Every structure is written in C-alpha cells, then in structure tokens.
ATP-binding cassette, subfamily B
Amino acid sequence: MFRRGRVAAELAWRAQPAAVLGSLAVVLLMGAAPVATAWLTKLVLDSLAAGGGPGILLLAAALGVAGLALVVLPHVAEYLNGQLHRGLQRLIYDRLFRAVNADPGLSRFENPSFHDELRLAHEAGQNAPQQIVGSSLAICQGILTLLGFMVTLTVLSPVMVVIVIAAALPSARVQLALSRRRARMLWGVSSNTRRQLFYGALLTSPDAAKEVRLFGLGDFLRSRMLRELGTVNEAERDLDRRTLRSQGLMSLLGAAVAAGGLFWAVRAAAAGSLSVGDVSVFVAAVAGVQTALTSIVSQWAGAHNALLMFGHYVGVVEAEPGLPVAPEPAALPPLREGIELRDVWFRYDDEHPWVLRGVNLFIPHGQAVALVGLNGAGKSTLVKLLCRLYDPVRGAVLWDGVDLREVHPDDLRARLGVVFQDYMSYDLTAAENIMLGDLAAGADPEPIRAAAQRAGIHDTLDSLPRGYDTLLSRIFFGEGDGDGGGERQAGVTLSGGQWQRLALARALMRHRRDLLILDEPSSGLDAEAEHAVHLGLRRHRAGRTSVLISHRLGALRDADLIVVLSEGRIRERGSHGELMALGGEYARLFGLQASGYEEESLRTTTPSTRSAGR
C-alpha cells in the first residue's frame, strides 16, 4: 500500500509540481481557518457581552477575513485540482499505454484476465492517483483542524475530547471494511462490466450495424447488455445497502455525542461556569472535531479504496512482458541462408491442445514457401512464430542459425513485411493507412503511392474526393480543406476487397525487407483483382524470401516449395508438380478446387453451346 501511495505521489509531483505545492498551501490555510473562525467568534461575543471595546472592530475585521478565506479557498482548491487532474491524466495514460505497447508478444492480449485487469487499470488511472493525493491532502487538512479543535476542547472539557474520539473509532473501522468490500466488488463484476460494454458497442458499431439489423439482433443484444448491467447494479445495490446501514448507525452515534455535549455546555453556561463565547466555541469545537474525524475517516477509506484500485494500474505498468526479451540481444544481420523451424511444438496454454507438433521446416533465402492446409491446421500460428509474437513451447525458430529468442523482437520485425489474415482497417486517411507500414519513411508521398501501385489500389485512392488525404471512416469527420472556413468533411469507406488491398499496400511499404509474409492476401478480392494482385506479387517477390498462405491453391502453384500442414504436422512437401504426382492431400484439395471451376464452366457454357447447335 505504501509503495502504491509513493508511486501516486511521484506521478502527481512529476505531472504538476506547482499545483501540488499550491494545494498543500491551501490545505494548511483551510485546516486552520475553521479553528481561527471559532476563536474569533468567541472573542467577539465575549467582547460584546462585556460592553464592547476599542479592539472589537479589529476582531470583527479578522473574523471577516477568516470567513472570506473559508469562502474563497475551496474555489482555489478546485482550480488546482483541475490543473492536477489534467496533468496527471496525460502522464498516467502515457505510462499505461506505453507499458501495454512495450509487451512485444500476444499472450497477455489473448488472456481474459489481463483484459479485466486492464479495464480496472484504465479506470483507476482516471481517478485513483488524484484521489490518493487529494485524500492525503484532505487528511492533512482534517488533522490540522482536529488538533486545533481538540486543544480548544481540552481547555473547556478534557472528558469531551475522549468521548468524541472514542465515538469516531467504530466509524473508522466501518469505513475501512466498506472500502475493502468495494474493491472486491469491482473486481468481481469486472467481467460483467466488460461484457456490458461489448454488447453496447455492438449496438452502436458501424461494422456490426448490418448484421444487427439483418438478423434482428437489437433486442437480443440489448437484453444481454441489460442482464450484465443488472448483475453489476445488484452488486452495487447490495454494497449501498450495507453502507447505508453502517453509516446511518455511525451518524446517530455522532449526533448523540453532539447533543450530549450541547446539553452540558448550556447547563455550564447557566451555572456561570462558561461564558457565551465559551459556549459558541465549545459547540463549534465539538462539531469541528466530529466533522474533522468524519472527514479523516472518509478520506482514509477513499484513499484506501483508491490504493487498492491503483494496484491494478501499477500491476499492468510494472508487469513483466509476456514475451521475454534477452538482456543483451544478439545482432540480427540481413538474411543470407534461411529460416529454420527446428522441432517446433506450440500450444496457446496448457489447457489447450497442441497447434504445432514437431514441425521441421527450412525456408531458404530468396525462395517462396507456401503453406497449405485446412482451417485449424496451424498455418497462421506458424506465421505468428515467424514474427515472434509467440515463442515455441519446445524447439526453436532460427534466423541464419540464430535463435529468435536471442534477438530483440523490434530488430526482427523491422526486417519483415506482413499481411495478416485478420488485417486492420484504420479510421485514418488513405495515406496514413499505408504509411503505418513503415513509419520511418514518414509521410513522403512517393513510397506511399509506389506501395499502392504495387498493391493495385492506387487508382481507387487517387479518385477519392481528396485523393490520398481522404479520411477512410464513417465514425469521424475529416478536417476541412480550408476553402470552406475549416468545415468538417465526412469520411468515406472502402469495400472489403479494397481494404484488403490497402492492407497489402501497407505491408509492401516494407518491400525491401528480408522476409515477406502474405497470409490470405487476396481472400476478399474478386477474380480479376485477385489475378492482378497475384501477378504483381509474383513479380515483386521474385528472388525474395517469402511465406505465402492461401486457400486458393492456384495462386500458390508457382511457389518454390509447398508445405501441407494437417493437425499441426507437416504431411507433405514439394513443388506443385511433385505433390500432384504424389497424389496425396495437396492433389486431393487441388482437384476439388479444379473440379469446382470445371463444373461452373460447364454450367455457363452448355446453354450457349446448345443454342449454337440449333
């Protein structure tokens, strides 16, 4: 707990040191102002009861200044809190997403527990550090006020000090217990909250809108969302009932103590033991001690809860990466010989079956290797290992004999050009969508256009309303071109095949890299576009090391080596001609596809043939 508090304090100081110092000064003044006001009120009343005097105006002026401070200082504190919040939020999010992005692997991102913790870390990052710092300052303010009023009460009635403090102890225990229960509740419903957000996002997502309306899923998704929200609400409602009962009892206890103190003070004043000013300062002191104790306990409980939640943030930021990085990574020279998968076994976790089983494969430098197999055969997983998004459970992936575990993942990936089967569509301009493939090239239009031409998407992008500067989005506005006074421009979107060619252009920004990996680069294209893309890729990858994956086997027949995967094992390997002569699984799959094309050809040509014969 102490370490989390220290981390929060360091973040606050780094984010806004002036706001922290200003808040500390305000806290000192606000802590002393109530005590000063109470004593000045007593002195004014006693002076009036004694017939006034030359010093009463000075006392009244001082009382006015103290009252003014009580009115103005909260607004100053609010302004400083805003400054601190903005500075902290920027720093907190920078560190959180920097830490998330620093993990070079995928294992954590495919773990539901990590996403639960990440959501809580994101939520804690918004409020927890400022609440920890703010509550700590408020506790300091409460302690200062408490000490001042306790001295006052000690002068008037030492017994009352003991009674008031004793009455506050149960409240402190209750508040801390509620704080721990709240932290457990938030963790317990974290999955429900994420599912609620998931269903809500589907109801508003442009990508899901077609199927939601086509299949009439609106009521179904809304009921799922409300069910998850109901679970969260019920947990919160249960905690609120406990809070109401506990805090209600503590409030009754505090009210009884205050009423008893007032009764004693009035009797003492009636007996002449206390002056009118003494009664006023006594009442203010009792109320002040109770208020200060309540504030200290409440702020302590809030800080305790924030510290518990902040643990999720600290846990994410300081977690070891899911993919280990060598302390002294080996240099990765340009590929000269080839890439070897040596007895590679892989599964995503111990509870799942093996996805790759004893794979041995050599990808020679300058040659194209095609991976073929049914869905689930392990092709895309093998690509993830080549990119070192995962490490093999057993065996090794070697780059010119160097184990990829010994190489920094960034150095490896700088030598790769990859199109994944589940490519991304970014709500950015067309040029930015391509530029992301090689940020080092910057926004230079020449390599961007060259990559688009290689992917066969240049003409499409060039014909957009603002060409390559057109925003490809239906959820954001683009910036105006300046002719309309900065009027926002609606974005446009592309077809599925066009998005796929844009993803291919992004990968081809790295066309001079050592290894080109194309995982279903044309699955969403029509026949003409697919043919053009594969002709272009064939010319582009000539003499380059490449790994190709496609279910359309005709696009792979010119590969130097075709590898057939089944149930995580290599069943066949060879050239197209060799595998067709073998008559195994590849020949069977190729024959199935060829027969489908032949049947379609017969269906389309037979009517015209009959017509010609009549």
